[in-house]
Amino acid sequence: DRNEHASFLKGGGQPPALDSSLALKRWDPWVSINLGVTELTRLIDYQAIAPDTFAVLNRSGPQNLVKMTRPGITYFEKQLPFVQSWAELRDERALEILAQIDNQFAFIASVTGLNVSRKRWTMEWLTIVIQFAIAVESRVKHAFACYRPVDLSPQVQPIITTPGHSSYPMGHAAQAFATMVALCG
Hints:
mainly alpha
């Protein structure tokens, strides 16, 4: 507890037990966040379980946490007209798209009333959740290696620089869902 740390800092006590969660309160947020993501990623593994099917596995048991099948190239080619139909909305959506490129917290705060400066622990938890989602989705994106619309057609002209990773599964959707689960649970 805090007395244990205070006593140690004054020179009158023992350091906290090894790997004590009590020390988390002393670290900068980026340290706590990295530790949280590390602990969560240790609990999972990945495996191809069929030619186009990939699973995220629970290391402590045999069950699949997530099992996904990669869509074929024709599925993505059929989506091109739909993707191109949204081009006319660029001016209307540009500010929202640019605001959500790297930091979704401003958007989350605007719809939840979450005050970033007054809710340190909530923000650290949400950052851990989002970074963990990114770690998992990056691994699955790598496994599937699906083409992006811009790779399939020169007529697709993205409003932002095309990210240097696969298009599937959708990262922002996974992060938004993980955030919703974290805020509800």
